[in-house]
C-alpha cells in the first residue's frame, strides 16, 4: 500500500485510557481465549520527523496503521504517539507467531510515501491467548514489558510476554519503589555509595577511585550498580541517583582534602540523561561550592554506548562541565559505539578500556594486539588510560608492558567503603606497596 503526500490524514489521536478501556471490554467479553494482542512502538521517530518533517511523519504513521489493519481479524488502536496496539481476533498461538514474524519482516523493508522510500524501525511486544489479565491497563503493562524487552534486543525484534518476564517486571517495580523511598531519605543506610580504587601503576599506589552505588532490598537482597542504574533510568530516578552519588563523593573529597590525603580524582559514573538536563552544570557548580572542593578533584564518567542517540546534546553539556575544570572519563572505550571521530570531539581526558577486552586476554592472544593499539591511541591523543576488570597477574603484567597508566579490579582491591578508601589513598610510602600490589 502506498500513500501520497496529498492524502488527507485519517489517523486517530493516541489515547491510552481509551485503549485500556477497549482491552477491558475484550477481556470481559470472553474473546480473550482466542485473541492475541500486539504492541508496536516505532524507534527514533523524532529523528525521522526532524529530517523529513511532520507531514511525512504523519503519512508514515497512517501507512503503518493501515498495514496493521490489513491483517484478518485485526483491530488497531493507538496507545501513544508512535505506539500501536493490534488486537488480532480469532487468533491462536501459531497465527500470532506468524503475524509477529511478518511484522518484523515488513519493517526490515522500506516504506514508500509518494516517490520516496523510507526506513523505519520498531519493537514489538506480544501477549498470546488466552489473555491472562484482569483489566485492560494490566494487559497494557504486559505489552509494555514485552515491547521494552524487544527494544533492548535490537531493531525490528518481537518478544512474547512470559511469566519469567512478569517476574522480572515485578522485581523491577519493587526495586524502583525501594530506590525512590531510599532517595527520599538523606542517609538511608540501605543505599550505599562505595568506591573502587584505581592504581597508578608506575607509582605502585592508589591515586584514584570511582563510586559504586548499591541498594539493599528486603525482597531481593543486595542490588548492584549494573542492575540499579538501568532500573533508575527506566523509572525516572536516574538524575536523583546521580546527584546522590555526586553529593556523597563531594563529601568524601572534602574529607580527603581536610586530612591532607594525596590523590588525583574521585569519579562518579553518570547516566547520559543527566547531561541532557539544562541546569546540570549549575547544579554541579552548586555542589562544588557547597563542599568547597576544587573542580579538578571530581571526575564524571560516561559510557561510550550512551552517546548513540543524543551525542550533540550530551557533548554540549560535557563541554560546559569540562570548562568548570571537572575531569571527564569515557568508559567502555574500544567497543566501537561512537567511533574515534566522536571521541576526538568530546572534552574527555581519560579513556577507560572495556573490561571485556581485559577478560579475553586469558584466552585470545589477538585481543592483546587490540588493547596495545587502543592504549597507544589514547597516549597519542594525550589521554590517560584506565584498564578495569584486572583479576590476574597475567593481565596485570601484559597491561603494564603496553604502558597502561592505571589499573583497577579485584586483583588489587574489591569495592570498599569511603573510610577504607581514605586509608588506601594515604599510604605514606608508596614504594612499600610494590610487593603488596
From TrEMBL:
PROSITE patterns in the record: EAL (PS50883), GGDEF (PS50887)
Range of residues in the leader sequence: none
Domain GGDEF intervals: 36-163
Highest taxon in the source lineage: Bacteria
Family annotation (CDD domains): EAL
Pfam families: EAL, GGDEF
Domain EAL span(s) in chain numbering: 172-429
Family matches, as InterPro entries: Biofilm_reg_signaling, EAL_dom, EAL_sf, GGDEF_dom, Nucleotide_cyclase, Rev_trsase/Diguanyl_cyclase
Name of the protein in its database record: EAL domain-containing protein
Organism, scientific name: Anaerofilum hominis
Taxonomic lineage of the native organism: Bacteria, Bacillati, Bacillota, Clostridia, Eubacteriales
Amino acid at each position: 500500500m502506498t500513500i501520497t503526500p496529498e492524502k488527507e490524514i485519517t489517523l486517530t489521536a493516541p489515547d491510552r485510557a481509551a485503549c485500556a478501556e477497549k482491552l477491558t471490554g475484550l477481556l470481559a467479553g470472553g474473546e480473550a481465549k482466542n485473541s492475541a494482542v500486539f504492541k508496536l512502538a516505532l524507534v527514533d521517530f523524532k529523528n525521522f520527523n526532524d529530517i523529513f518533517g511532520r507531514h511525512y511523519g504523519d503519512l508514515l504513521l497512517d501507512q503503518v496503521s493501515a498495514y496493521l489493519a490489513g491483517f484478518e481479524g485485526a483491530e488497531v488502536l493507538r496507545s501513544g504517539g508512535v505506539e500501536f496496539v493490534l488486537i488480532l481476533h480469532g487468533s491462536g498461538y501459531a497465527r500470532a507467531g506468524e503475524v509477529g514474524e511478518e511484522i518484523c519482516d515488513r519493517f526490515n523493508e522500506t516504506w514508500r510515501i509518494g516517490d520516496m522510500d523510507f526506513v523505519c524501525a520498531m519493537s514489538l511486544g506480544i501477549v498470546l491467548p488466552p489473555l491472562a489479565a484482569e483489566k485492560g491497563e494490566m494487559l497494557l503493562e504486559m505489552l509494555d514489558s514485552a515491547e521494552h524487552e524487544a527494544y533492548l534486543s535490537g531493531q525490528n525484534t518481537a518478544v512474547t510476554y512470559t511469566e519469567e518476564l512478569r517476574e522480572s517486571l515485578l522485581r523491577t517495580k519493587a526495586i524502583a519503589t525501594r530506590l525512590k523511598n531510599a532517595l527520599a531519605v538523606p542517609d538511608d543506610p540501605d543505599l550505599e555509595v562505595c568506591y573502587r580504587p584505581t592504581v597508578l601503576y608506575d607509582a605502585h599506589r592508589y591515586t584514584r577511585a570511582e563510586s559504586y552505588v548499591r541498594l539493599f532490598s528486603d525482597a531481593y537482597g543486595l542490588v548492584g550498580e549494573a542492575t540499579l542504574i538501568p532500573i533508575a533510568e527506566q523509572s525516572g530516578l536516574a538524575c536523583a541517583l546521580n546527584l546522590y552519588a555526586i553529593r556523597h563523593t563531594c563529601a568524601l573529597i572534602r574529607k580527603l582534602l581536610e586530612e591532607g590525603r594525596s590523590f588525583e580524582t574521585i569519579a562518579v559514573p553518570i547516566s547520559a540523561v543527566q547531561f541532557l538536563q539544562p541546569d546540570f552544570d549549575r547544579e554541579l557548580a552548586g555542589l562544588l561550592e557547597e563542599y568547597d572542593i576544587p573542580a579538578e578533584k571530581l571526575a564524571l564518567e560516561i559510557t561510550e554506548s550512551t552517546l548513540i542517540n543524543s551525542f550533540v546534546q550530551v557533548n554540549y553539556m560535557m563541554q560546559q562541565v569540562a570548562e568548570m575544570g571537572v575531569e571527564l572519563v569515557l568508559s567502555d572505550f574500544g567497543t566501537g559505539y561512537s567511533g574515534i571521530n566522536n571521541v576526538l570531539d568530546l572534552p574527555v581526558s581519560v579513556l577507560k578500556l572495556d573490561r571485556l577486552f581485559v577478560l579475553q586476554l586469558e584466552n585470545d592472544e589477538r585481543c592483546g594486539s587490540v588493547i596495545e593499539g587502543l592504549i597507544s591511541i589514547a597516549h597519542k591523543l594525550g589521554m590517560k588510560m584506565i584498564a578495569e576488570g584486572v583479576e590476574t597477574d597475567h593481565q596485570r603484567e601484559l597491561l603494564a608492558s603496553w604502558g597502561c597508566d592505571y589499573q583497577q579490579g579485584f586483583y588489587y582491591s574489591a569495592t570498599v567503603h569511603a573510610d577504607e578508601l581514605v586509608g588506601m589513598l594515604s599510604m605514606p610510602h608508596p614504594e612499600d606497596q610494590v610487593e603488596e600490589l
